[in-house]
Amino acid sequence: MAENHTTATDKTVPYSTGDSMITDATIAEMREIAARYPVARSALLPMLHLVQSVEGRVTPEGIEACADVLGLTGAEVSAVATFYTMYKRRPVGDYHVGVCTNTLCAVMGGDLIFDRLKQHLDVGNDETTEDGKITLEHLECNAACDYAPVMMVNWEFFDDMTPESATQLVDDLRDGTEVKSPRGATVCTWREAERVLAGYPDGRADEGPTGGKATLAGLRLARERGWTAPGGSSNADTQKED
Amino acid sequence: MADTLTPVLSDNWDQIRSWQLSSYQRSGGYDALRKALAMQPADVVATVKDSGLRGRGGAGFPTGMKWQFIPQDNPNPKYLVVNADESEPGTCKDIPLMMATPHTLVEGVVIASYAIRASVAFIYVRGEVLHVIRRLQQAVQEAKDAGFIGTNILGSGYDLDVVVHAGAGAYICGEETALLDSLEGRRGQPRLRPPFPAVAGLYGCPTVINNVESIASVPAIIKNGPDWFSSMGTEKSKGMTLYSLSGHVTRPGQYEAPLGITLRELLDLAGGVREGHELKFWTPGGSSTPLLTSEHLDVPLDYEGVGAVGSMLGTKALQIFDDSVCVVRAVLRWTEFYKHESCGKCTPCREGTWWLVQILERLEKGQGSDEDLDVLLDLSENILGRSFCALGDGATAPITSSIAHFKDEYLAHFENGGCPFDPMASTVFATAGASA
What Gene3D superfamilies does the entry give (chain B) (predicted)? Predict the structure, then answer.
């Protein structure tokens, strides 16, 4: 199983491609993010998410821009950017497809799903398809164990997956078919998702349900059996989600 | 005697658009905030202390006492930080809570901040949950627009700002002092204690760090009183809590019950272990809590009960593994996780987890020996209690507990020259005849 955990270290990382898309507007947004915090440096993580939303990865220009805005050195910003798994040095595709291979998802089918997708897409872990659409990565636990095996597309939940539903999902993403998360919104691009993580809402919070079947399992049973906390429930007899 | 299930945190999860302010207010949302703002902050702290609420993030430290430790004579600003970095393998309670009812958390944040007299509160949420972040952002904005966050909240003279902060993928940031470093824009590495965050936390100022579920429990405690809360649960573990069942169970999911329910009762509610199979091993509260077996079905799942059998209640993440699962494979994968997530600050954890993986890989392939088991235990002993933070301790839990309960299975691997289990048999699609 160790091959699941190898990274494509043989590919070179472009230091700078000379076509940075960071503009004065990006810098202005960085300053805006910094102003949310009592101490500006706290803004560094969201600022790096913003860099990824503009550049499609953390670029040297993005690092320098963060450093300039916060009065840090490039080395100080790089030290942070290289610590966190979500920050990518290589360009990420339109869709970041993650497969949980932590223990519970792995034994429930995550390992087989990840193997199938590597074959199907002809990529290794943390690699992008030639058409630039999909970056495949194995994930650690994503806090959805009651829906195992779990996949994430641009950090939206895809629950109770099988090798077949996983290949269908990536085929739909490559074909441009609209894809909806069963517990989230219509899938946006990875860059658009990164912008939300930088603290710029995209107005999609009202899409999707309150939760899936597993989220509601205990509550539904309590309703059926008339169980409540002491003093009763103010919600037991009101209109419900489907 | 309370009912078997007691939905409080989850009680509005089946309501239409439960994540919106209007839905939350229809079931009495923000009434507790009005009540709290009419009390003295110290009385709010006392109420939470009297309720017996203990931290739901794993450690079980009394929440009210944590709040009381904030030195109010300290001239620096005070901060509340909510740990919403839910990443412990198996743990999946805070994410659905914030998805379905972010306002329960936000109302708790405002009440807790008022109690400790914080002027800014942060919700540090892991970055890998886009839709949860959207709903938190929207809930905070709705609360601002309604005057529950901002200046002179509901005419009380109390001012508070709340910031939703997305992390960037690092399990270690669930450790509270690593979380503070991360929130300050640094690599997430734990800090030496003392000083404790209550005295010198975020920006060196007095800081309370609480788990999502702990803070989300506060509005109900204020609204219904401490006696109502402590009427649920056991002698030292009060109240209701979210138990998360996952893995080889018929109806996995969130079950909110009084503390002290047993796994036997929970499995009964969830339709039992996967049909045709038997329970083999389970975690009471995530992968960092030592494994238990079918011997422990009647252990009360409260802080004392689970502690008494040598494990920990942790996050109440009940991962159920049936007889189709190879325990060596399971433990190797968790160990690879700890190795990947070790922050590198201290030697026992950084080097130790690396060596643990080397040995376990060899064992899983059937190339190990009796001696390797002794080396694993010796290594574990040198990591446990000698690491800088609890990540290293947690890494040893699956290893030492699995060797204690399943030594024969380790031996079988090198006696057979490989893993005797079929990896297909444990999958959810095993019966569908699918293959990779």
Answer: 3.10.20.600, 6.10.250.1450, NADH-ubiquinone oxidoreductase 51kDa subunit, NADH-ubiquinone oxidoreductase 51kDa subunit, iron-sulphur binding domain
